[in-house]
Amino acid sequence: MTTIGFVGLGTMGRPMASHIFRQLPAGDTMVLHDMSSERVGELLAGGAVWAPTARALGQQADVVFFMVPDVPQVRAVLEGPDGLLAGAEGRDVLVVISSTVAPDAIRQLDDELRQASAGRVRVIDAPVSGGQVGAEAGTLSIMVGGPDELVAKAMPYLSLTGNPVHLGPTGAGEVAKACNQLICAASIVANAEAAVVAERAGLDVGKLFELMLGGYASSRIMADKGPRYVAKDYSVSGAAVFWIKDLKAYLDEAGRTGTATVQGDRLLDAFQGVVDAGWGWEDTAVVQKFIAEQ
Description:
By secondary structure, the protein is an alpha/beta fold. It has helices at residues 13-22, 41-46, 54-58, 71-78, 84-87, 103-116, 131-137, 148-158, 172-200, 205-212, 220-231, 242-256, 264-276, 287-292, and strands at residues 3-7, 29-33, 49-50, 63-66, 93-97, 121-125, 128-129, 140-145, 162-168. The termini are far apart.
C-alpha cells in the first residue's frame, strides 16, 4: 500500500492527479497539497486527503509528484520547519519532478536531498509533453530520468497519466524535455511567422493551415495553435514566459555537451521579446503579435 502525494494542482497538475486518483491500485491513497483546496473539491469528495502543510504531506506520502513552475517552488515545499523534509524525517520518500526545469538543477537537488536524509529522500525527473489537452486526456509523453530502482516505483503511477519512457540517469528526462522544447518553440514561432506573412499576402490563413495539416508541415502544434493564429486568440493555455527558462535550459545543456546551436538562441530572443513587450502571461501564440509588430 502506497500513499501518493501531489503538489501543484494547476492546469497540468490537476488533471494528472485526477487520472492517478481515479485509477489508484486497491489500498493506495492520495494526499494533495497546494495553495488552496478549492481546485480539487471533486477529488477530496471522492476520498483524496488534503494536507494543509507540506510537513503534513511529508508525514504521509511515499511518492510525491511535483507539477510546479520551477525548482524554487519545489524547494519552498521541501524546506523549512513546515516543509516536506521535516515531515518525512526518518522515512523513505521519492520525489518525482514533472516540472520542466534545468537538468543540472535536478541532479543538484537529488545530491542535496540524498546527503541531507542519509539516502532516504531521493529525486527523479519526469517532465511531460502534450500540454493541457494531453494532461486532460491522459495521453502525455513522459520523459523519465533516474536509477532503475527508483524509476520502477514511479512508473505505475506515471503510466496512469500517459506514456512514460525511462531515458537514462537522473536529469535525462529534463534533457529530453529541453530538446522537446526547442522543437516545439521552433514550430510555434515558424507557424506564427508563416501566419503573419500569409495574411499580409492576402491568403486565407485558416484554409492555409487546413491544407498544410495534410502535408509535411503538419504537426500537433499546427493543429492546436493554427486556429489561435487565425483568430488572434492569445488566451492562456501555456504562458509564453515559461519558455524563457525552458530555452535557457536547452542552451545550457547544449553548452555542457559542446554543441553549437543554430536556432536555440534565436528562439530565446523571440520569447524574450514577447516577455519584454509585456505579453509573457499570454499564450505562446502571442509570438504572432510580436512578429507582426517588429
